[in-house]
Specification:
Elements: E1 4-10, H1 20-28, H2 32-40, E2 44-46, E3 49-50, E4 62-68, E5 85-89, E6 93-98, H3 115-121, E7 146-152, H4 155-166, E8 171-179, E9 186-190, E10 193-195, E11 203-205, E12 213-221, E13 225-232, H5 239-246, H6 261-267, E14 274-282, E15 289-293, H7 298-308
């Protein structure tokens, strides 16, 4: 959505002496925070002069406001995203290596880059099945999680893959560097996950949550942390992070779920140490089993090397 709405009104007697952001809220139906943004952007004039948000208005003064149309938060913006690698591409699917800091698709509150935006910008035609902002998306990775994921290009592939994820026939393998040493060294966490009652951006193990099953085994045990291989039976939001935190072994660097900030700083981590290393499934067209892998990105490899060097 583009364009600018130009509005001009005289300040009525009833607003005499009010702050200009309050007056704008009354006259134009804006929130005070939106009014403050427009003032800061130089889009507001009082009798032809620039203003500050604390300025007071007088009756009869002419208030000129430019109100740009706000972008649709769910609009897919085509743009090439540096760091996204194409692992495999055929008429049915495209498999990518997603870097950290990229969302899979647009959502309210997210202003950053997206996988679907990159694919659109790079000229990929993907399935039109699913909601407009996440067409072709059959799985998701958190913004702060990197690794391999598949996107459907054909409608048939979307249907087959969506069904495979729903029926848990897709092999999803992650590596996680967690604090301490899980006991037992290999095991299963079967605990329901729901939205955290005290913070809507977090999740937690809780009664009444959705069934969630995580299998893990220790690959390496070091002084301060363990490298785990994790297989997901279900695919809940933040599942590995929540289950590891529930075991009191949060992913290194995952401050949201209780990781030690001192250790995170020592390892140079600014996000959770969690990577989708492997994805296996039956190809939606051929029926053959296919598997794709992603190596550790530089920040995670650096942190793992630092843990390995700790004695």
């Amino acid at each position: 959505m583009t364009g600018v709405d130009h509005r001009s009104l005289r300040v009525p007697e009833g607003l005499d002496g009010q702050r200009i952001d309050v007056a704008m809220a009354q006259l134009f139906g804006l929130s005070r925070s939106r009014a403050a943004e427009l003032i800061a952007d130089g889009r507001v004039r009082l009798d032809g002069n620039d203003v500050s948000k604390s300025e007071r208005v007088l009756p009869g003064a002419v208030l000129d406001v430019e109100i740009p149309a706000e972008a649709d938060p769910l609009e897919v913006v085509p743009e090439i995203v540096e760091g996204i690698k194409i692992i495999h591409d055929d008429p049915s699917i495209v498999v990518i290596d997603k870097p950290v800091g990229v969302a899979v698709h647009p959502s309210p509150g997210w202003r950053g880059q997206t996988v679907v935006g990159h694919l659109a910008g790079a000229g990929f035609r993907i399935s039109t099945s699913g909601a407009k902002e996440r067409e072709g998306i059959v799985q998701r990775l958190d913004v702060g999680t990197s690794g391999v994921m598949v996107i459907a290009k054909s409608e048939h592939a979307y249907s087959v893959l969506k069904n495979a994820f729903r029926h848990r026939t897709v092999d999803k393998t992650y590596h996680a560097l967690v604090q301490g040493h899980p006991d037992p060294l290999s095991g299963t966490v079967d605990a329901p996950i729901g939205r955290h009652p005290g913070a809507d951006y977090k999740f937690a193990v809780m009664d009444g949550g959705r069934a969630s099953v995580t299998h893990y085994e220790t690959l390496e045990a070091h002084r301060f942390a363990s490298l785990l291989e994790v297989h997901l039976e279900t695919g809940r939001t933040h599942q590995i992070r929540v289950h590891m935190a529930a075991l009191r072994h949060p992913c290194c660097g995952d401050l949201t779920y209780g990781a030690d900030p001192t250790l995170a700083k020592r390892l140079g981590l600014t996000r959770q140490w969690l990577h989708a290393v492997r994805l296996g499934f039956e190809h939606p067209e051929t029926g053959d089993y296919v598997s794709y892998e992603s190596s550790y990105p530089d920040d995670l490899q650096h942190a793992l090397d630092a843990i390995r060097d700790t004695h």
